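Weekly puzzle thread! Below is a chain. First person to post its structure in C-alpha cell form gets bragging rights.
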Amino acid sequence: MDLQIIETEKDYQDLLTWVDLQFDLNIAPESREGKKLHSALLLVKKYEDQQYAIPSPNTI
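Winning reply:
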C-alpha cells in the first residue's frame, strides 16, 4: 500500500481495510511495516478529525 493523504471516503475505507489486515498480522511496532502502519493510523486520524469532528461540549 502506498500511503497518501486521504481525499475521499473510498480512500478512507480502503486504508481502514489495509490497517485491519495489518493488525491481523501482528506485526512488530518497531519494524518497517509497523512504522508504515503507524503512519497510516495518523492519516486515518487526520481524516476522521476533519470529516467526523466531535463538537466540544458547552461549558457554562
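Puzzle host: Confirmed. Bonus trivia for everyone else. Residues 32-51 form the longest helix (20 residues).
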